[in-house]
Amino acid sequence: MDIIKISGLTHRYPDGRTSLEEIDLSVARGSFVVLAGANGAGKSTLLKHLNGLLRPQEGSVEIAGVPVHQDLRHARRTVGMVFQDADSQIVGETVYDDAAFGPENLHWPAARIRESVDSALETVGLGKLRDRSPHLLSGGEKRRLAIAGVLAMASEVIVLDEPFANLDYDGVRQVLAHIVALHAGGRTIIVCVHDLEKVLAHAQRLIILQRGRIAADGPPEQVVRAAEACGIRLPAAIRMGGMVESWLR
Amino acid sequence: MAALIFGYQPGHTVVHRIDARIKLAALALFSIVSLQAGFPGLGLALVAALLLLPAARCPPLLCLRSLRWYLVLLLCIVAARAATTAGEPLLASPWLPASRQGLEAGLVLAGRLLVIALLGLLVTVTTRPSHIRAAVEWYLRPLPFIPHQQIATMIGLLVRFIPVILTQSAELHDALRARAIDQRRNPLRRITYLGMPLLRRTFVTADRLAQAMEARCYGMERTRHQWRTGACDWTALGLVTGFCALLLAIS
């Protein structure tokens, strides 16, 4: 069953430039989708429509059968967004407070918040840092805290915008391991990247955006060859005639 | 490391366990009473503050080192008061016009500010920022026309983002130094080169933050903090009230 259904979505900037044009897209529950595209292809704009941060100017976006504009709270609870810049999305004064921010906004009872936040922090391996100031965390830990923030809201879909940006090898592996584990736990994952190398081995579907349109969509092994023509570097292993290997090996 | 003493330090001491509302009320009460306190009262208060700090696993020397620039400011206040208050001259030299009355007034003022700062530090070190935020919200709630939840959120964001802005400022400063900003003699130009990008970056961060908060369902109705006030809290309030009465009596 599809958890996300987008029909005829078009978005234009105030100056008239088109950022998304006639996007038709469905995402199956529990799938692992990589959304790739060069800078300015419309990836982030598309992601913001999933969470109701942007409303469709034309077309519609449905989350679990409910149009986003009809029930914003439902959309935001179902689709958790992890932004590219972890520093500017962490709002809590401590790790625990930040993870609790979403559940507090949902007006959950205190006991449920405690349980949900404890579980989310343990899942991303930050249970022991609960009283630390987020400012003192490493880049990878901040990214994991941002993931914990959406896990604590029990989001079914986790959307990650450039989750590996500015991370070292170890940081990439840590974040990737958590993303893969969340997918194995049944969550729908949408990862937005412009570098396929790190995540493609785990994806079930690759969608390539180019100038606001879907240029290619399908299983990664069939679609990846179209990447180079859309301004995305083909992974080195594929250039050499092999398959992309997981960074977790 | 010294700067870290300004933030919350997790712990399980009695001071850590006291209700944040009681701690804020005690700090406010003490600040008001200290305005009336003279030398004996301030001496007693300073001793009490220096005893309370280690009780909360907060080394007094580290606290004083963390407040070193504040202590320099207090010294300036003492010097200014001594130099500008009329009275019996302390020194014969006409170039150093310090009066005994001015020095006493300056010391009393600096003592009050030092004791309040030490106790404020004790509150911030032993209280989770979210509890301070919730306590402020609790005190503002009965006031009409005051958006108490928004004010509390703003306090929380301020605490969270001061280190972020300071880090950004340090990064920008390094980037400017790498491009020989030190060669510029005009300080106004240097401030402009640092200030404008910092301001722009701060606004961009604020914009992203607003989006991230919206994405996590930020709204007017949020889960309220669950307060648990026990005998220990009321005892603490009683002790502070008694101590304040003693300060007033000996002053």
From TrEMBL, chain A:
ABC transporter domain residues are: 4-236
Q: Which GO terms describe its cellular component?
A: ATP-binding cassette (ABC) transporter complex
* Alphabetical keyword list: ATP-binding, Cell membrane, Hydrolase, Membrane, Nucleotide-binding, Translocase, Transport
Does Membrane count among this protein's keywords? Answer: yes
Domain of life of the source: Bacteria
Entry keyword Hydrolase: yes
* Principal location listed in the UniProt entry: membrane
Q: Enumerate the subcellular locations listed in this protein's record, separating them with semicolons.
A: Cell membrane
**Pfam families per UniProt:** ABC_tran (PF00005)
User: Which EC numbers characterise this protein's activity in its record?
Assistant: 3.6.3.-
Could you tell me which InterPro entries the record lists for this protein? AAA+_ATPase, ABC_transporter-like_ATP-bd, ABC_transporter-like_CS, ABC_transpr_CbiO/EcfA_su, ECF_ABC_transporter_ATP-bd, P-loop_NTPase
Annotated GO molecular function terms are: ATP binding; ATP hydrolysis activity; ATPase-coupled transmembrane transporter activity
Family from the record: Belongs to the ABC transporter superfamily.
The protein depicted here goes by the name: Biotin transport system ATP-binding protein
In its UniProt entry, the species of origin is given as Desulfoprunum benzoelyticum
TrEMBL record, chain B:
Instruction: Give the way it sits in the membrane.
Output: Multi-pass membrane protein
Q: What Pfam families does the database record attribute to this sequence?
A: CbiQ
Q: Which UniProt keywords apply?
A: Cell membrane, Membrane, Transmembrane, Transmembrane helix
What's a single GO CC term here? Answer: plasma membrane
Q: Where in the cell is it found?
A: Membrane
Report the transmembrane regions from the record: 24-55, 67-86, 106-125, 231-250
User: What is this protein's name?
Assistant: Biotin transport system permease protein/energy-coupling factor transport system permease protein
Biological source species: Desulfoprunum benzoelyticum
